TrEMBL record:
Mn(2+) binds at E39, T83, D261, H262. This is Putative glycerol phosphate lipoteichoic acid synthase 1. The chain holds residues 195 to 628 of 686 of the full protein. It comes from the Bacteria. Residues 31-329 form the Sulfatase N-terminal domain. Substrate binds at H200. It is a multi-pass membrane protein. GO terms for molecular function: metal ion binding. Keywords: Cell membrane, Manganese, Membrane, Metal-binding, Transmembrane, Transmembrane helix. It is found in: Cell membrane.
């Protein structure tokens, strides 16, 4: 295991991307961090109009705002752990497992060196999660203690009775509204994560929650048609949340990070989705499926004026080093497989959990290489083959080293400078923070 840990450290140290001085600690230092985990929210929703109406007008405004750094080539990298894989990647910058959910399988006993503990120990951040489902789903109540979360405001903190819930829990508008009393009493600076649920397969929504003037598609596939309706509802929920942030005075001293956790429409439905995207279903290929794995990443810093939409290719694995550098916190000492997207050394090859990958030039699906320029299968030149082999080798190595680290719980043996091992017994979510 010592040598296995050394293999991991050798890779992550050689793969480390140092901060971009222009962004390191200037724009976000000392701000609260609010993570908005947008359930099943895909990038194709951004800017999309249906019957002349924007599906997500508020998020569209946020995405283009001068106070946002938004990413149009940002991809989810989840496996079967879905939401819990996204959480793991964003808060540890290590991947989920090849099969199943890391949270469920390893989350109760593994040693984590995760965002809540790092931010607490380095900058005295309070940490909290807000989610309208029961605490035990995805084994969160145990995992969050290993991560060092001080608070977990799960379903037991809200009235989830009757039509206040839908699918996996409390409806998003109610989660945002009923949690403000907890959020505004958190000791600042805080790191608070909201996990939404309403925009979740099969995208049911009570009539009372739909907007009469938003008419969705009529592809004949209920999942696709309803997806736009619940995405529209989620957009309204975020808009309402921003109003609460403004009213409580939290907006101006917070960095709000919004991202889609993974796809909402699965490959099997994509042919019906193609019509809604104005594409010919008969021309739909694996390349198109891979391109739809984009989810939005919006880093919103109210008050800044130099935001822009970045073309950089990146994935969920890259968020933690990126956020920590924005906060002015160094990351070199931690085991992180991702790289700071603002860094000149940021690695733009994005690994998918199933060993597929995308880069600015290529899309690799089950070993077939497509050109991102033409969307067609490629006959590789010698030089292109060399590049593709290099990218593939890096993806395979990164995934296998991450699996070795997590499956063998190697962080037990790793002590980054100044990091105190988390004691999960310190936390009791039933009656708030000890
Ligand atoms: C449940 C919710 C489920 O709490 O997070 O999300 P999923 O993993 O199914 O996307
Ligand atoms: Mn999810």
């Amino acid at each position: 295991t010592k040598s296995e840990l050394d293999d991991v450290l050798k890779f992550t140290h050689s793969h480390y991307a140092k901060p971009n001085k222009k962004y390191y600690g200037f724009i976000a230092k000392g701000k609260n961090v609010i993570i908005l985990h947008l359930e099943s929210f895909q990038q194709f929703l951004i800017g999309k109009k249906i019957n002349g109406k924007e599906v997500t007008p508020f998020l569209n405004k946020l995405y283009k705002s001068k106070s946002s750094y938004s990413f149009r080539n940002f991809f989810h990298q989840v496996g079967q752990g879905k939401t819990s894989d996204a959480e793991n990647m964003l808060e540890t910058s290590t991947y989920g497992l090849p099969q199943g959910s890391l949270f469920a399988q390893l989350g109760s006993d593994n040693t984590f060196q995760a965002a809540p503990a790092i931010l607490k120990q380095r900058r005295n951040y309070t940490s909290a999660v807000f989610h309208g489902n029961v605490a035990s789903f995805w084994n969160r109540n145990n995992v969050y203690k290993e991560m060092g979360y001080q608070y977990f405001f799960d379903a037991s903190y809200y009235d989830t009775s009757g039509d206040r819930s839908m699918g996996y829990g409390l409806k998003d508008k109610l989660l945002f509204r009923d949690s403000v009393k907890y959020l505004q009493n958190l000791q600042q600076p805080f790191y608070a994560k909201y996990i939404t649920v309403t925009n979740h397969f099969p995208y049911d929504l009570d009539k009372e929650d739909t907007s009469p003037n938003f008419k969705t598609t009529d592809t004949g596939d209920d999942v696709v048609d309803n997806y736009f309706v619940t995405a529209h509802y989620l957009d309204q929920s975020i808009h309402e949340f921003y109003r609460y942030l403004k009213k409580t005075g939290l907006l101006k001293n917070s960095m709000i990070v919004l991202y889609g956790d993974h796809y909402g429409i699965s490959d099997s439905e994509n042919k019906n989705l193609a019509k809604a995207l104005g594409k010919n279903p008969d021309d739909w290929t694996d390349y198109d499926n891979a391109q739809l794995q984009r989810v939005p990443l919006i880093i919103n810093l109210p008050g800044t004026k130099h935001g822009y939409v970045s073309n950089k290719y990146a994935g969920e694995i890259d968020v933690l080093p990126t956020l920590m550098h924005l906060l002015g916190i160094s990351t070199k000492r931690y085991v992180q497989f991702g790289t700071d997207i603002f860094s000149k050394q940021h690695d733009q090859v994005v690994a998918f959990r199933n060993q597929d990958w995308v880069s600015p030039s290529f899309t690799s699906v089950s070993g077939d290489i497509y050109s991102n320029k033409t969307g067609q299968l490629m006959k590789l030149t010698k030089r292109q083959k060399k590049q593709v082999d290099k990218d593939k080798a890096r993806v395979d190595k990164e995934l296998s080293l991450s699996d070795s680290l997590n499956e063998k719980n190697l962080l037990r043996f790793y002590h980054p400078k100044g990091f105190e091992t988390v004691d999960p017994r310190k936390y009791n979510y039933a009656n708030g923070y000890q």
